[in-house]
Design goal:
Glutaredoxin, Glutathione S-transferase Yfyf (Class Pi), Chain A, domain 2
């Protein structure tokens, strides 16, 4: 346990079932790190369909990552996990104290979590490949279309409301927790990010923080 990590109320260390390249797993890793929580990673290799095996289905009947085993329960769905972390470990906060500011952060998180990521996740892309014959050029174009639409709105909202250096002010919030993995995904799908300078600046600011660096896909044990 590092100096930035603190013990959980229960004796057990949470087990995070995830995949290094999964954006939703990436979100949860960032939040756990920002909260200073120790956790054990258990890799679920989506490339080998490990999420469909009975052993993992017993953990998460939906057969998706991430899942967070906290001992007395297994939490699924990254938004629910992130909300639980915020409620259980309110310091440092990932939501502002002021209600309107909280609503703004939640809206930015939902912009990615509801409108970009779901149409670009692995299930959708596999269906496009196998059921509709899409090649990798078509896959990248599909992903780029939805990422660009969402990033255009995110950029405009940051310009309207943001104070920097993070998405919603001087401290990282859930908006940044959602944004950074989506930027990582955009790079993987060869999206030109230069048209969103505010988002690149936020990503750079987050990249200065150890919590974000340690959560990056490329440094995970299963990468």
């Amino acid at each position: 346990m590092t100096s930035q990590q603190r013990p959980q109320p229960s004796a057990s260390v949470p087990k995070l079932y995830g995949f290094f390249r999964s954006g939703t797993s990436h979100r949860v890793r960032i939040a756990l790190n920002l909260k200073g929580l120790a956790y054990e990673q258990i890799a679920v290799d989506l490339r080998r369909e490990a999420h469909c095996e009975p052993a993992y289905e017993a953990v998460n009947p939906q057969k998706l990552v991430p899942a967070l085993d906290i001992g007395e329960a297994v939490l699924t769905q990254s938004p629910a996990i992130l909300e639980w972390l915020e409620e259980q470990y309110p310091t440092p906060p990932l939501l502002p104290a002021e209600p309107l500011a909280r609503a703004h952060v939640r809206a930015l998180a939902a912009l990615i979590g509801c409108d970009i990521h779901p149409v670009n996740n692995r299930r959708i892309l596999e269906a496009l490949r196998h059921d509709f014959g899409a090649d990798e050029t078509a896959i990248n174009a599909w992903c780029g279309h939805w990422i660009a639409a969402g990033f255009d709105a995110f950029e405009a909202l940051v310009v309207r409301h943001g104070q920097g250096p993070f998405a919603c002010g001087p401290h990282p919030t859930l908006a940044d927790v959602y944004l950074v993995p989506q930027i990582e995904s955009a790079r993987r799908f060869k999206v030109d990010l230069d048209r969103w300078p505010s988002l690149l600046a936020i990503d750079a600011a987050c990249g200065e923080l150890d919590a974000f660096r340690r959560a990056a896909p490329g440094v995970q044990p299963d990468a």
